[in-house]
Amino acid sequence: MLDIDPSNSNEQDSPVSLRTTILLHKEHPAILTLSEADHRLACLIRLVGELTLTTSASPFESLAMSIISQQLSTKAAATIKARVKGIVPEFTPELVLATDETAIRQCGVSFPKIRYIRDLSMKVIAGDLRLDALHVLDNEELLKQLTSVKGIGIWTAEMFMIFALGRQDIMSVGDAGLQRAARWLHQLEERKDGNYLGQIAPAWSPYRSFASLYLWRAVDMGFVDSGLPVEVCLDSSMIAEET
């Protein structure tokens, strides 16, 4: 397991090109910066503890599987993806295009999604989407290229940039869970536009992706639904540990 120090990067927000595990802990430079920038986020980080983010060794496969997973439960998506991997074990654009569409459909993939995956494959082969040169693309250009593929919207592209590439400063303002967690974290008044991240996320740059991981975990662990301030949740957790 590698402890990646983002301060050593030569680029403002460089992607991780090989499969790597990023360990986020209290002494990590990014976590120190986030904790100093936002007291309430610092409390959440202490409450949640260490997190890991494992990037993808195959960006093309990750994108294709993201398309397959859209609008499916986690269990259903996992079953269908395993079937697809069974008939296309070496997941490359060339082999995807060479695979009979009916065979992919029999795995449970809808015909629209098959068209999207084929469009992705053709764009990668043509060089319209430069998955072979991710390190030279900034976030804006990569987002533009990703969303040029049929079936890949902004949210899917942002999730790919965070979870597959390990990019450090992605803020998905369209993610309802993040918005809800941001409102809870800072106990914000209701906004008509629902953009609570707009009030607080700028302080988290250049590590907004890592802050997002903690917000998602706050949702998963039930802290957001509890409605209790993060400081109260942290105090309760510390008392429980002492008893």
UniProtKB/TrEMBL annotation:
Transmembrane segments: none annotated. The keyword DNA damage applies. Gene3D superfamilies: 1.10.1670.40, Hypothetical protein, domain 2. Its EC number is 3.2.2.21. It catalyses: Hydrolysis of alkylated DNA, releasing 3-methyladenine, 3-methylguanine, 7-methylguanine and 7-methyladenine. CDD domains: ENDO3c. Coiled coil: none annotated. Keywords: DNA damage, DNA repair. Residues 68-220 form the HhH-GPD domain. This is DNA-3-methyladenine glycosylase II.
